[in-house]
């Protein structure tokens, strides 16, 4: 299902040799409420954003995942992440989407319904990619594929 | 060993002849041994620095050395000579950057390497360029400036590495500095202006780009160049400031304005590096009015972020000598006054405004004294008349803001002389019962007083003024409140509450620690007789209905004031002689065992311990110690005052542990014995926390106590074996006390000291994981976590216990324990994969639960731990 799967995630990003670099946002400050044992903190967009922040710094600097493009509702257990490939013909779009999806599956409670899609109008084959990402069976099959899992895991390994 | 040829070269070169240099170069060609290279580089450096005439050999000499640039060397494992990559890099750089004669060959090489793809080559080249600038002049740089600028610009605009960016900026700074300082021949043109114009041309349009993507890199480049010399600063500021001022008005969104103002702030800060003799020469004078109106606009913007930058800019503008007019200052003070009373949701702005007021007061005490103080004084007194009208919460918070503003501006001696009387007056009114007073209000006044005292610590004269004014007043108020009266007013009771007395004590301590021994001695002769003899003559109002006798069967109200005496005498410098010391120590001991008021007896025990710690060794110290031990033993043996005797034992032990007194071992053993005491056991376990922690009121380094730096390590080495032994020997029901005591000791120890000791404690730590006390759990987890990272082999043996216990604790009721347990789960992934894989699916299933924890901080740890467990044994990880 993934086109141009050769090499790691970063190879794909190099297709665009001169991307715009954005200023990094700081660590989320810890509030008094977060330190209070009693107060529940609901899952919000920044938290979803930080989940991705830790695995691929480049994603944030390249604004592939942006906090404003994350919709989350803790009470309704839904999350929607729109990601923006660096260029409209990025052949790694499916792989990036898959990595985001896998990271969400591993990091969010099971009750959540996840939707990962391309920011409308930012990729040539937007619909095809979105369709693949929404297909549970395809995602599951993709993760059975050792080669593909390897590439996804490479993306998700924390940078040291 | 070193090749003999190099020794030979060294000798040859020292006798200096052209032929030997030539020979040296020939030998050096193709050398690969790092030891020889180091010698060779040193020789070439000597050749150049001793100014041998190199004549036609310059290029050849450059070539034989520069072929090693950039150094790419990884020391072999177990290298007996210990030559590091950096040694080679630095010695080669010393050669390359040693002479301007290399410039025409070196600069093209550096540009080529900066343009390469290799990160280390970029860094090395930029650093070498930086080093060259200290010996080069305009002549050497002239032909290469456009390419150098192009390379640096590209690196700063596009790099993903902060180090490359920083080195690029540093190189640009040095280049500009070099161009600014070069001595020119009469007919040469000055390259600085054209170089800066180039930079401006390439950067200025980015400053105006509405989407602001290259705004920051451009600003950083311009600031790096502007920071190099006064001329560069003038050149760049005079172009950039009008541009940025215009941009500020063009953009209406707060966040864009904030970015622009932050850039302006950066350029303003650079101005402070240069001093201008003549006022009219200063480049900022022209823009002063525009800058002021822009800052005031920012200060009234609804965006907190923009306000914050506005406040910082105002501080920097104010720090420029003679820039602001008195009218500007009045306006600025007005804004700061308004910002000092901001609502709770813009707390950061209020704090920043207070800080700015403090900084600016040191420069313009007059403006603050005439425009701010009267307003604050009025606000402070409002509390009296407006109680009924305003809604309680509102008034309350305005009142606290006012107190904080008063202490914030007490940064200048002349202001302290106005603010201190205001605050003390306010406290006296509270005591007289004119105002409805809550303990929280008195505490707030005390906190303000304490901040004022802290600010006075730099200036001995102000500090003595504070001490001399505030101390008699505070003692006077307290003594008066402790007098028996017919109508016992509620307000007087407020002053005697535990928290209020602690706040008063803290002011007294802060106002005493920095006294010179002479002045302290003067003060101590008033205060000790007040407590021992009831001598009230030094107090401002000293006609009291009855005597003040806190030690001789005075009322419990009077006894409580010993806390204030403690704060005073325990803050004195060590060499100040305390009058009637013998009598004082005996009274303190007696009161420490009095069981009617725990507050007073604890204060007395602390005071005794504080004095004991500072007492020089000798007969008198031994006598005091004997008395203390007797009192403790008598107390522990009796039924009624066991708790007080225990508290005394604890404080005396602490006083001795801190100064490594030999008797401390004996007292610690006594304390350890109490761990199995059915009544005092839990308190004794918590006592270990007190022994190991830093106190804030007595026995502090700031209060001149004798605190040895390694006391925790020493306590650990001396006592942990006994604690472990005690644990194994103790009956089941008191075992947790030993574990808790041990936890406190381990917890406070620096991790590097603890780590090598932990394997011997491992079995105990594993047992402690099952203890139900969350203090023990937390401390155990924080000990195990680094151990998992450092000694995975040992820990692998206990994998089953560790996984089970960590997973159980990850659903503890305490958030801190859950976090620590999940961090340990994360650290577990450092163990060898074959050990972990059998547990992988179990752990991943179990960690799904904390992903839905109600606390975000717990979820964060669960996410990273679970992510790592997923990667275990998986392809690509």
Automatic annotation (TrEMBL), chain A:
CC terms in the record's Gene Ontology section: cytosolic [4Fe-4S] assembly targeting complex
Pfam families to which the protein is assigned, alphabetical: FeS_assembly_P (PF01883)
Domain MIP18 family-like: start-end pairs: 62-115
InterPro entries: FSCA_dom_sf, MIP18, MIP18-like
Keywords assigned: Chromosome partition
Swiss-Prot/TrEMBL GO biological process terms: chromosome segregation; protein maturation
Keyword Cell division belongs to the record: no
Organism superkingdom: Eukaryota
Signal peptide: none
Stated family: Belongs to the MIP18 family.
Function, in words: Component of the cytosolic iron-sulfur protein assembly (CIA) complex, a multiprotein complex that mediates the incorporation of iron-sulfur cluster into extramitochondrial Fe/S proteins. As a CIA complex component and in collaboration with CIAO1 and MMS19, binds to and facilitates the assembly of most cytosolic-nuclear Fe/S proteins. As part of the mitotic spindle-associated MMXD complex it plays a role in chromosome segregation, probably by facilitating iron-sulfur cluster assembly into ERCC2/XPD.
Assembly and interaction partners: Component of the CIA complex. Component of the MMXD complex, which includes CIAO1, ERCC2, CIAO2B, MMS19 and SLC25A5. Interacts with CIAO1, ERCC2 and MMS19; the interactions are direct. Interacts with KIF4A; the interaction facilitates the transfer of Fe-S clusters to KIF4A to ensure proper localization of KIF4A to the mitotic machinery. Interacts with CCDC117; the interaction is direct.
PANTHER family, alphabetized: CYTOSOLIC IRON-SULFUR ASSEMBLY COMPONENT 2B, CYTOSOLIC IRON-SULFUR ASSEMBLY COMPONENT 2B-RELATED
Protein name in UniProt: Cytosolic iron-sulfur assembly component 2B
Organism whose genome encodes this protein: Cricetulus griseus (Chinese hamster)
Organismal lineage: Eukaryota, Metazoa, Chordata, Craniata, Vertebrata
From TrEMBL, chain B:
Sorted UniProt keywords: Cytoplasm, Cytoskeleton, DNA damage, DNA repair, Nucleus, Repeat
Residue ranges of every copy of the MMS19 N-terminal domain listed in the record: 26-158
GO cellular component, one term: nucleus
UniProt GO BP: DNA repair; iron-sulfur cluster assembly; protein maturation
PROSITE patterns linked to this entry: PROKAR_LIPOPROTEIN (PS51257)
Compartments, as annotated in UniProt: Cytoplasm, Cytoskeleton, Spindle; Nucleus
Keyword Thylakoid attributed: no
Assembly behavior: Component of the CIA complex. In the CIA complex, interacts directly with CIAO2B and CIAO3. Component of the MMXD complex, composed of CIAO1, ERCC2, CIAO2B, MMS19 and SLC25A5. Interacts with CIAO2B; the interaction is direct. Interacts with ERCC2/XPD; the interaction is direct. Interacts with ERCC3/XPB and NCOA3/RAC3. Interacts with RTEL1; the interaction mediates the association of RTEL1 with the CIA complex. Interacts with BRIP1.
One Pfam short name: MMS19_N
Family: Belongs to the MET18/MMS19 family.
Gene expressing this chain: Mms19
Protein name, entry field: MMS19 nucleotide excision repair protein
Described function: Key component of the cytosolic iron-sulfur protein assembly (CIA) complex, a multiprotein complex that mediates the incorporation of iron-sulfur cluster into apoproteins specifically involved in DNA metabolism and genomic integrity. In the CIA complex, MMS19 acts as an adapter between early-acting CIA components and a subset of cellular target iron-sulfur proteins.
